[in-house]
Amino acid sequence: MSIDERAVRRRPTKAQQRKGRIRNTLLARRLTQLGFAVVIIVAAVRHQLEPTAGTSASVDALCPFGAMETLITWLTTGTLISRIHPSNLVLGGALLIATLLAGNPFCGWICPLGSVQDLLWRLGRWLHLPELKVPTRLDKQLRWGRYVVLALVICFSVSTAKLWFADYDPYLAILGLDWLFNPGGMAVAGIITAAVVLVGSSLVNRLWCRYLCPLGGVLSVLSRFSFLRIRRNENACTDCTLCDRPCPVGLQVSTAAPAVSADCIGCLDCVATCPSKGR
Amino acid sequence: MKLSRWWAPAVVVVVMLLAAPVGQAAGWWSTSGRTQVVAQQLSVDDVKGWMTIQQAADGLGIPSQTLIDALGPQAAGLAPSTAFKDVEATVDGFELSTFRDRLRELVADQSAAAGPSATPE
């Protein structure tokens, strides 16, 4: 074998390059998700171990959605609803800027509840649980659920001047770690919501994100105005539809014209999967 | 213009990571509404769910046992170190917002019992 032949043999094929791209993207995303999840879990453990000291942040205080929950009260009275702190406003403002700049990778790369759902989805496949396919028409209608939840949360947060959603919030129920340190203190509604999310997301990928997450609803609207969005290159696209398969939120990327739906969570799985660099 | 696929997540991750340090540097960052309770310097509206009965009693200048009695018979076994947010689990229907009205009465009673104070002319 000549030196040239060996060099050609060592050069990865297009399929190998694509596989490498998929692997690298997934690895980067999983490590980022893990990093942020660890931060939230450490905060939750510290808060549970020293609940009255006031030195450690609760998981409520580290959620940017708190800014949405208190926004109307803050703008009209200058005060925050109970259990919401300036940190929520800072994180909410940062997320607003980030989303307007770069779309919605927050849900795909940062949100710890999204990471939990990704983990459960993988677990479901490993356990050979059935994958529930929501019919396209029903899927489109169910996605409005996020805005219904958002309207309810804002309405009740303003009228009660407290963190009304806390009793129903799966983020708080799962990542607040009350189930580990103080099970008796958990709200029944929160346990039910968490159970629905945990079981449901092992059957439907990112169930909460697709149909119920109020923050996802806000980010979906904001993403429409963002500078960076994944766009399908119609000239390069071969309509192979490979990009549709890995999408965690079930978007039909192959029919994007040209920008991908604002419901995109920016995970980049479709981009990495594309064999012809069509996006 | 076609950008690297890494730009969008990188921008979002960097902005979110910078939020806390920038917020701290600007003095906006606070993850708790808890403040130091100074004896007899607390107003009824400043009583929060995280405060213990003892802290509220000290801040309002009322004996802690008086506060426990005001919470009703179900609260008889509560320790002064119990936070108001945990009282809900013991006393049916307890809400701090409505209990503040009772606190106002107690503070008024306490002031009256301390005797009329001289008023400047």
Structure in words:
- The complex is a heterodimer of chains A (279) and B (121).
- Chain A is globular and about 75 Å long.
- Chain A is mainly alpha-helical and 279 residues long.
- In chain A, α3 packs across α4 and α6 (112-126) crosses α11 (188-203).
- Chain A is 59% helix and 0% strand.
- Chain A is built from 14 helices and no strands.
- Chain A has one domain (23-229).
- Chain A starts with a helix and ends in a 6-residue tail after the last helix.
- Chain A has helices at residues 3-10, 14-49, 65-77, 86-102, 105-110, 112-126, 136-142, 145-160, 170-175, 178-181, 188-203, 207-211, 214-223, 269-273.
- Chain B has 121 residues and is mostly helical.
- Chain B has a domain at 44-114.
- Chain B contains five helices and no strands.
- Chain B has helices at 7-26, 53-60, 64-70, 84-87, 96-113.
- In chain B, α2 packs across α3.
- The longest helix of chain B is centred in the first third of the chain and has 20 residues, at 7-26.
- The radius of gyration of chain B is 23 Å and the shape is elongated.
- The mean pLDDT of chain B is 80.
The end-to-end distance of chain B, rounded to whole angstroms, is 77 Å
Q: Total number of helical segments of chain B?
A: 5
**What does the largest sheet of chain A look like?**
none
- Outline of chain B, from the CA principal axes? elongated
Strand portion of chain A, in percent? under 5%
Weakly predicted, low-confidence segments of chain B: none
